[in-house]
Amino acid sequence: NILVLHLKRFEFKNALRRDKLDSFVEFPLQGLDMNTYCASSSSASMSEQDFENIPKQREFVVNEIPAAYDLFGVVNHYGRMGFGHYNAFARRWNEHRIEDDWNLFDDSAVRNDITKENVVSNAAYLLFYRRRTFA
């Protein structure tokens, strides 16, 4: 029910040098559709008999629940490898809903005057999504 995406932000040049990648990656705040990338429970690699023998508690794919995800957290990195600063945007959620308001966590300071436009930036490093409907 939680999806974590890690964006590659450092490029290996040689044993002593790695460059910071500041490419802008556009990512959705709501409605990330992962259905295309998810296996279905009736996998072609399994026979019907093999599939029937899987205990129900071990099934982890539920075809009736779409793999739509909403963003609830972003970790940002500023600076370069070995020297830099991290902060995070996050919003509250539970199994039933996700709040609209974003907060910025930066060392010991927390700001709550964050707009959606602030959340998507070229500093994004880790993205945290929750499944819209829990499986």
Write the layout of secondary structure elements.
Blueprint: E1 2-6, E2 10-14, E3 17-20, E4 32-33, H1 48-52, E5 68-80, E6 83-90, E7 102-106, E8 109-114, H2 116-119, E9 124-131
Antiparallel strand pairs: 1-9, 2-3, 4-5, 5-6, 5-9, 6-7, 7-8
What does this structure look like?
The protein has 135 residues and is mainly beta. Helices cover 7% and strands 41% of the residues. It has two helices and nine strands, in the order ββββαββββαβ. The chain has helices spanning 48-52, 116-119; strands at 2-6, 10-14, 17-20, 32-33, 68-80, 83-90, 102-106, 109-114, 124-131. Strands 1, 4, 5, 6, 7, 8 and 9 form a seven-stranded antiparallel β-sheet that branches. It has a two-stranded antiparallel ribbon with strand order 2-3. It is flat, with a radius of gyration of 19 Å. The termini are close together.
Question: Key features?
Answer:
mainly beta; 7-stranded antiparallel beta sheet; 41% strand; 135 residues; two-stranded antiparallel sheet; 2 helices; 9 strands
Characterize this entry briefly:
This protein has 135 residues and is mainly beta. 7% of the residues lie in helices and 41% in strands.
